[in-house]
Amino acid sequence: MSSSVSDFIRNRIRDDIENEVVDGTIITRFPPEPNGYLHIGHAKSICLNFGVAEEFGGKTYLRFDDTNPLKESEEFVESIQQDVRWLGFDWEDRLTFASDYFDQLYSFAEQLIEKGRAFVCDLSAEEIRATRGTLTEPGSNSPFRDRTVKENLDLFRRMRAGEFDEGSRVLRARIDMRSPNIHLRDPVLYRIVHAEHHRTGDKWCIYPMYDFTHCICDALEGITHSLCTLEFEDNRPLYDWVLDNVSINFHPPQIEFSRLGLEFNVMSKRILTSLINAGHVEGWDDPRLPTISGLRRRGVPAEAIRDFCSRVGVTKQANLIETNLLDFCVRSTLEDTSPRAMAVVDPLPVTVINFEGEDVTLEAPNHPKNSELGKRELTFGRNLFIERSDFRESASKKQRKLTLNGLARLRYGFIVECVEVVKDGQGSPIELKVRYVPESRSGQDTSGLKPRSTLHWVSATNSISAKFRLFENLFNVREPGSGDPRDELNPTSRIEKDGLVERVVVDDDWERCQFERNGYFIKDLDSTPMKPVFNRIVPLSSGVH
Fold it and tell me: Alpha-carbon distance 157 to 351, whole Å?
């Protein structure tokens, strides 16, 4: 199987297959660190790694880079697996952890010591940073760089045995402190961490660094194409150096692509964690966050995220993607499949003063273009509600509002004329009194009237109280993170409204739907039988907020 999609990674894979660089079985991996929840930037990597393997008839590993016990947990492991599955991908029996290879990684570290290519260094982390040099000045050798192989092996084994304090010693590669690539200036390979590991317990008190771990795991798993984001481009020479200097008969190529940036969002786990810990958002699944769990709770379909990642494409050019593109993908996914209903987010009571007797039953399609979604019943009676923003005492011709002494059609219902406005002590409308035109019933209209506006509405007898959460961008700057993220937060990123929704939405437990003229919504986890809560997934257009 081959892919029809063309980008530099897929073209490289095609060339490698054609030139028999690989045997035709493409193997990729998605290697998250379980120190937080995944975000939409990770979704791009997931779609790429699982996608290209599937397109070329290959396989993908889900491998957890669990080398830092201070920040990792089973909670994050489970959430990552849930996110990958929800996006539509399956690693089958290829779930691995870097900790699965700790014994092998340790033996490879001893190999480097025996070859004279690694040494135990007693400099502190600050001293190592101070002697590393700069982009224009070379670093300086550690005073411990010339320890003998015997001394280094002894010290490294004692590090493993737990004899030394955290931070007192590290294992460093012996490469070149004058290298123009700072990553090759005797990088740290192992450090001492006296902490319980979520999988290995207290078996280890030394842990390998990412640059040492990742390439070896790739080789051991037979990864044919190690795909990573551009910030690891300068690490590639170290990736290659490690594999060239340990006894492994396989050397995957590391290929870099641009990471996903989404305007008005941050992808830094550090910043996201700080926002959560400070209570600026409610948790990793807060619908304002770009986390996959947050997007899922907000109601964004997995298909929309896959479509978004496909449209963004794979390049080496760093870019900041407009949120409008994600919104477009969401609308495109939901347009044909979401039933319609009416909800009034900010209700203004309406009394139909010339209506008497039993409510009139009306009929409305659940989708104007998809008859398979069926129909529903509406009731029209004396007590109704419209959106407060849909009324103005006076309005220009361009403003499609109900006005005093003006006409408006109630969707699927009748034409009404506002004849009186009841106001509170501050002069704000608290009730409209209207007359309806009996011969103007939708689909049977013989009135000859031509109102400028059509309004959504609900009746008192056929609606249920509900809470609506309306979300905007979490940040009010296009590219947050240059300053204190807390100062860049949008104070109106979440607005809650108490309104009314058609009863059928709650009674029939609709999951996602379009509330006409208000946007696409999903029932939130906070819903109760007495008070449903709906999250707005996306407005109907980019101009609605």
Answer: 84
Q: Which of 537, 50, 539 is nearest to 295 (CA)?
A: 537
3-state SS class at 210: helix
Contacts with 535 (C-beta within 8 Å, 6 or more apart), sequence order: 287, 297, 298, 299, 469, 471, 521, 522, 523, 524
| DSSP annotation string for 338-371 | PPEE-EESSEEEEEETT--SSPEEEEEES-SS-G
Q: Which residue has the tokens 């016990």?
A: 69
Residue 404 backbone phi and psi in degrees, to 5:
-60, 125
For the entire predicted model, the pTM comes to 0.93
Question: Which of 346, 355, 347 is closest to 433 using CA atoms?
Answer: 355
State whether residue 42 is helix, strand or coil.
helix
Residue 543 has pLDDT above 70, yes or no: no
- Of the candidates 355, 359, 347, the one whose C-alpha atom is nearest the C-alpha of residue 436 is 355
Q: How far apart are CA 414 and CA 322, in angstroms?
A: 41
Count Cα atoms within 13 angstroms, Cβ side, for 48: 31
pLDDT (average), residues 101-115 = 98
Q: Has residue 523 got a pLDDT over 70?
A: yes
Give dist(CA 47, CA 253) in Å, integer: 19
Dist. CA 174–CA 139, nearest whole Å: 13
Determine the Cα–Cα distance for residues 196 and 513; give it in Å rounded to an integer: 46
pLDDT above 70 as % of the chain? 99
- CA separation for the pair 59, 444 (Å, rounded): 60
**Catalytic positions, written as ranges:** 33, 259, 269
Q: What does each C-alpha distance from 356 to 275, 341, 380, 418 come to in angstroms?
A: 55, 26, 11, 17
Q: What is the largest CA-CA distance in the chain?
A: 101
Q: Which of 459, 87, 49, 80 is nearest to 225 (CA)?
A: 49
Buried b (16+ CB within 10 A) or exposed e, 422-439: eeeeeeebeebebbbbee
